[in-house]
């Protein structure tokens, strides 16, 4: 048996069956030191875990599967934390602020709408001075078209 030293830590199984409690050895017993913010988040819904499983099974090897699960779980936990923080500051009463914080937390793919409109403007005014500028604008328009839904 491994000798325990004061300050050693472990994850312990909660009554929900998950290893979601952090404990520290005090020298005589294990003491629960799980932060309240972690213990109140709870477990991800089974349907969400199934979606993660479907995504992770597309990975090529076991390490990739584990990384995919860890990434998705971390994102879910961060989203839960963010929503809890936004609930705490909801007295500001600004939905726009909350939406802005959510958008900044995990930004989507870049939009080509504005740059594509600018490229079209250059084509309509013959503003290209070199073939390379024209080729770059064609590529920008191609990428914008590829973002459109089928």
Can you offer a commentary on this structure?
The protein is mostly helical and 150 residues long. It has three domains: 9-39, no CATH class; 46-105, no CATH class; 113-147, no CATH class. The protein is 55% helix and 10% strand. A three-stranded antiparallel beta sheet has the order 1-2-3, with no helix packed on it. β1 and β2 (19-25) form a beta hairpin. The model has no long low-confidence stretch (mean pLDDT 76).
Give the biggest sheet.
3 strands, antiparallel
Strand content: 5-15%
Query: Any low-confidence stretches, pLDDT <50, length ≥5?
Result: none
Helix content: 40-55%
Topology, number of strands: 3
Q: Strands of the biggest beta sheet: in what spatial order?
A: 1-2-3
- End-to-end span in angstroms? 61 Å
Order of helices and strands: EEEHHHHHH
Overall structural domain count: 3
Radius of gyration: 25 Å
Shape: elongated
Query: What structural class should be given to the helix and strand makeup?
Result: mainly alpha
Number of helices: 6
Offer a concise description of the structure.
The protein is mainly α and about 150 residues long. Helices cover about 55% and strands about 10% of the residues.
